[in-house]
Amino acid sequence: MQKKLFLGYKLRRLREQRALTQAALAKQLELSPSYLNQIENNQRPLTLPVLLRIASIFEIDLATFVEDEEARLVSDLREALADPLFTGGAPGTAELRNATAASPELARRALVLHHAYQKLQERVQSLAETLSSHERGQALAGPQFPYEEVRDYFHYSNNYVGPLDEAAERLSEQEGFRPADMQVDLMRHLKDRHDVRVKIIADHDGESAMRIYDKTSGTLYLSALLSGPSRAFHLAHQIALLGQSDAIEQLIAQANFTTEDAKSICRVGLANYFAGALVMPYRAFATQARAVRHDIEQLQSRFGVSFEQVCHRLSTLQRPGARGVPFYFVRVDMAGNITKRHSATRFHFARFGGACPLWNVHEAFAQPGKILVQLARMPDNVAYICVARSVTKRAGAYLKPTRQFAIGLGCEAAYASEVVYSAGLDTSNADAAVPIGVSCRICERADCQQRAFPPIGSHLTVNEHHRSFVPYLFTQAGEETGGAGAPNGVVEGVGG
Q1: Which of 2, 27, 157, 200 is buried deepest, with most CB atoms within 10 A?
Q2: CATH number at 325-442
Q3: How many whole angstroms separate alpha carbon 114 and alpha carbon 83?
Q4: pLDDT tens, 164-216?
Q5: Which residue ranges make up each domain of the chain?
């Protein structure tokens, strides 16, 4: 049985953008005004004939229109509502889906409010710690909320920025950039089109920077420590800042960021996006990716780019009408902090706290340079092929610490035939997948032996006569608590 499509909010938004009345649109769709009103209020699903007429009238990509973009919004809202701030049982998945489908903008604003609350709580805690220790300084400085705002911008754009992606591809074709000579071609373009010279400089007297642009002299300085792929990326980044400034500023204006810091961060992010699209043009890269079944190492050699650059680019191949395999991309440091995350999939990342310890991205540090493959299953029962590998960024001196990260890339197991990393995996066997979650604070898996702490809102009882292999045994809010000695009412978390 096929899933019914309730997309009333999207249709209403399209109609309002075109300044059409319900009666006018109903006439074009060959429907009665009352029937259209029911569709817009999600009282009736969209049928295939109506969908086809919508696509024709509004000249939109049908795949983009029917995409389940509410899934990630539901996940984010579910995590936010797990906060102890909200008493009582958490809303069910069906209720959350109904709410986000009816008013996704209201759901996003609720998330903004919760972000603000989180930041305020952290600042209050910092203040309390400062007062208790009689210290001053930077304790009041909480986490940078603008970074989260920019992350959400790319997150809800499916990590695809059409105007910049298309502009990068046009420029690459016009200039005839060659992967084998990308650095030379980019430097030539900077000199011919922007009168910018490039100089490679060494680290002197502790002064280190990957890229410095001197507008007065028209000189771009690049660090000698940068690898070839990194140099090409920074050259392309500078081309974005010089040649695509109007397009970038327009995108920033449309995003409606709340702070100047967020605008500045997004400006860098958009320039980075253009840079990746310039050295790996969409159609050429997508064609090669399909040909080698998304083999990251082969794509590295064919485009002269790094492992991380390939993974990030794969997560952006979501051009309407020419979509690639939907991938998630993540970069994690050795402490488990997610420093980069983008997703075109339903894979959910933790917005607060650490990621699941069973996810293979953490294991990558134990086997440096080796590509690890994991078949994993999220609590929503969607299985993923997860690829992970550590990367090392050299510091250039013995006494400077080397930076290490783990890169994660993954797609739904439904795309196994299109991904080389599915070799040897039994994607048809549900028991073969490792059960992972978003984070312990919201994960409902009751049998996880790696759980760091019980989920928020669960009910715990202590039973000194029972010890389980599972660190925390609990019942969810609203469920019956087990009696003495019953496994579902025991908390374990202390002792060896």
Answers
A1: 157
A2: 3.30.450
A3: 9
A4: 999 999 999 999 999 999 999 999 999 999 999 999 988 655 557 889 999 99
A5: 8-66, 72-143, 144-322, 325-442, 458-496
